[in-house]
Design a protein that fits this description.
Layout (H helix, E strand, L loop, with lengths): L1 H11 L17 E4 L12 H9 L4 E8 L5 E3 L35 H4 L24 E2 H11 L6 E6 L12 H14 L6 E5 L2 H10 L4 E6 L1 H4 L23 H11 L4 E4 L11 H9 L3 E2 L7 H10 L3 E4 L2 H10 L10 H11 L3
Parallel strand pairs: 1-2, 1-10, 2-5, 5-6, 6-7, 7-8, 8-9
Antiparallel strand pairs: 2-3, 3-4
Helix pairs in contact: 2-12, 4-12, 5-6, 8-9
Length: 353
């Protein structure tokens, strides 16, 4: 009964697994710089994307939030956390929202966010992370403009996530706002055909496919979004009940469910923990269904060895320089690097406030 209800809902919004077109495997192994490459530079900032380009990432992975005044910004967290950003001055005199640290992005305007220094603090779990004092949160359009300064031939690929909270909807704007705002920028960008749209909230993947069937979607998943502690249906999976999908394991059920919502890519966690979802049988099932599989966030070469043996199509990592070098050592093709001098000149031009 639950599956038939989910089927009816998905068909109503225009999603059909029968329309799934297998995604061709690219010649270069997809080394994705997670948040640009947060092991090497402060995450989700222009400097992090600069070093991702210098280090030869195939794809720049990043996150989007939506401000109170409807601007798409590049940031991971739902709220401004003190370990990453510092207040400077109010956006205007007598601003009752100041200080901004601790506030949700959805409750702050772009002008308020632009006062924050989000480049001065090195994260304790990334001791080699370069800091760039004074760096501001960028809009998605600003990131595209910076990369186009470097990449005039539009060679870089993108993996862009909607940071929407299915469990706490009051913390972010809703699905339709995310999809409409992001798609408008995608469609106007020269990178439109190089963008993968990813989310843990599968409702946004379904909505994006309905709006634009040509957008490549990637179903993000981890144990905590796949299964609820009380065994209820997860709010993250677009109304689907995994128990109604065939499969000998949770990983296989997830592959079948991702295919059902017409995702071209499955992106499970690959942490070294008992709850890691990436398995060889998941990879095999995803490939059988015509999907690619690109696990996250892989910072161990031992784990990377296993994943390559299992046949994954890409790896999302905080250290794209290390993973790229390792991929070359395995005899696999990698994407070219961008000239360091050109990248840093464009960074100097665009990373101003």
């Amino acid at each position: 009964m639950l599956l038939s209800c989910a089927v009816s809902w998905l068909l109503t919004i225009g999603v059909s697994a029968a329309s799934q077109q297998p995604l061709a495997r690219p010649s270069a192994f997809d080394v994705q710089g997670h948040r640009g490459g947060r092991g090497n530079a402060v995450e989700n900032t222009l400097p992090s994307f600069a070093w991702g380009l210098i280090d030869g990432a195939t794809t720049l992975e990043l996150d989007n939030g939506i401000t109170k005044d409807g601007v798409v910004v590049v940031w991971h967290d739902e709220e401004i956390v003190a370990s990453k950003c510092q207040d400077t001055v109010p956006a205007f005199s007598d601003d009752s929202a100041f200080p901004y640290v601790g506030k949700f992005i959805a409750n702050l305007t772009l002008a308020q966010l632009k006062t924050l220094d989000c480049g001065s603090q090195r994260q304790s779990n990334f001791p080699l992370q370069l800091t760039y004092s004074g760096t501001r949160i960028s809009t998605l359009q600003e990131v595209f403009d910076f990369v186009e300064c470097v990449d005039s031939e539009h060679l870089i690929k993108w993996n862009i996530e909607s940071k929407i909270d299915a469990a706490f909807p009051d913390r972010t704007v809703g699905v339709n706002v995310f999809v409409q705002k992001q798609h408008a920028i995608f469609a106007a960008s020269p990178y439109k055909n190089s963008i993968t749209y990813q989310s843990f909230d599968w409702r946004s993947l379904i909505a994006m496919k309905k709006l634009d069937p040509t957008i490549i979607t990637s179903a993000l998943v981890q144990y905590d979004t796949a299964l609820m502690p009380d065994n209820t249906i997860s709010p993250w999976l677009g109304g689907l009940n995994l128990q109604n999908f065939s499969g000998s394991s949770l990983s296989v059920k997830l592959a079948n469910a991702a295919h059902y919502i017409n995702a071209s890519i499955l992106s499970p966690d690959a942490y070294d923990s008992p709850n890691s979802l990436t398995t060889k049988e998941m990879v095999d099932q995803a490939h059988y269904l015509g999907m690619l599989i690109k696990p996250w966030t892989v910072n161990s070469l031992d784990m990377a060895d296993n994943l390559l043996q299992w046949g994954v199509d890409g790896i999302i990592t905080d250290y794209p320089n290390i993973i790229r070098r390792w991929v070359q050592q395995q005899g696999r093709q990698v994407a070219p690097k961008f000239p360091k001098r050109r990248v840093l000149a464009c960074l100097e031009q665009h990373n101003r406030w």
